[in-house]
Amino acid sequence: MSSNPNAQGFSTASIHAGYEPDEFYGSINIPIYASTTFAQNGPNDLRNGFEYTRVGNPTIVSLEKTVAALEGAQFGRAFSSGMAATDILFRILLKPGDHIILGNDAYGGTFRLIDTVFTAWGVEYTVVDTAVAAEVAAAIKENTKLIWVETPTNPALSITDIAAIAELTKGTNAKLVVDNTFASPYLQQPLALGAHAVLHSTTKYIGGHSDVVGGIVVTNDAALDEELLFLQGGVGPIPSVFDAYLTARGLKTLAVRMERHCDNAEKVADLLDSRPEVSTVLYPGLASHPGHEVAAKQMKRFGAMISVRFAGGEEAAKKFCTSTKLICLAESLGGVESLLEHPATMTHQSAAGSQLEVPRDLVRISIGIEDIEDLLADVEQALDQL
């Protein structure tokens, strides 16, 4: 086994990076260290660096190392949720009087946090289409400290050229952070494209089974990591050790799951694109998608998220949501099962009336790893009811 996890293949690293079987029992999997505190050899003489789980636990650290290896990062810090990770990053990178640039299509929870909590703290924000680098460039100011990019975006599946935006930060005070949740580390590594940090809601593809909530931030910036470590312990938004174990367990199969997710999504997108009930299919794998070429350049494949706009408007969108039998109407995404939702009234209702408002004729579908024949049949019968 290579001593450098970043030199391993992706699947190998997802299974082996971050943990070696110990010399005592040789457990193949990282144990769940369900202990709040750790015995010390003497006052402040720690055994392998662990003293109290809020400031470090072997199960959590193992997960952090694995995700960091998969993203080509030196450092990783795990949190209790994707939003907890987002909040900590904001606290580090933004202070009263600072400015953030946000995409005009983004997760509703991220926008809500900026628009309520951080504006009350004196932080300014500008919303632009980050897929247009010129718009980002025009929005950068002296006090711009953070450019927040999702690609693909949630829920319109817009694609931003990460390398192009990273280039814009040179000579400025701004850091580029990429929310890589929709792509997962298997499909995209933003640090290699110039991002300063990468965030994941590990609840989604990394955990992959809709049974555990979590978040993680990875970076090659030692100073940023030091601040992440301080607030991780100082504020305490850590994952439970059981959650960290479940997330690490799911992560081992990320590569094989993502291949099946993408296989299925490509076929479902083609079906949706052929139907008259659908006015627009938003999927970067389609040649008609405006971000197709950029996605092909910076992603391994095109992902498993599809958004659809219906010719019959909001009524048709909601009817479709309640007509599928196999694909379940529920929030979240990235699990082995297929889910769909109506963002305007569910995950993104906090963006109503803002520059991030989601069209009411749009449905977001998270394509799972079921048999493709069953998924296609379910989509067809639901469309037939419109």
TrEMBL record:
InterPro entries: Cys/Met-Metab_PyrdxlP-dep_enz, PyrdxlP-dep_Trfase, PyrdxlP-dep_Trfase_major, PyrdxlP-dep_Trfase_small. It catalyses: O-succinyl-L-homoserine + L-cysteine = L,L-cystathionine + succinate + H(+). Keywords: Amino-acid biosynthesis, Methionine biosynthesis, Pyridoxal phosphate, Transferase. One of its GO terms (molecular function) is cystathionine gamma-lyase activity. It holds the Pfam family Cys_Met_Meta_PP. Its EC number is 2.5.1.48. One of its GO terms (cellular component) is cytoplasm. Its cofactor is pyridoxal 5'-phosphate. One of its GO terms (biological process) is transsulfuration. PANTHER family: CYSTATHIONINE GAMMA-LYASE, TRANS-SULFURATION ENZYME FAMILY MEMBER. Belongs to the trans-sulfuration enzymes family. This is Cystathionine gamma-synthase. It comes from Corynebacterium callunae DSM 20147. The lineage of its organism: Bacteria, Bacillati, Actinomycetota, Actinomycetes, Mycobacteriales.
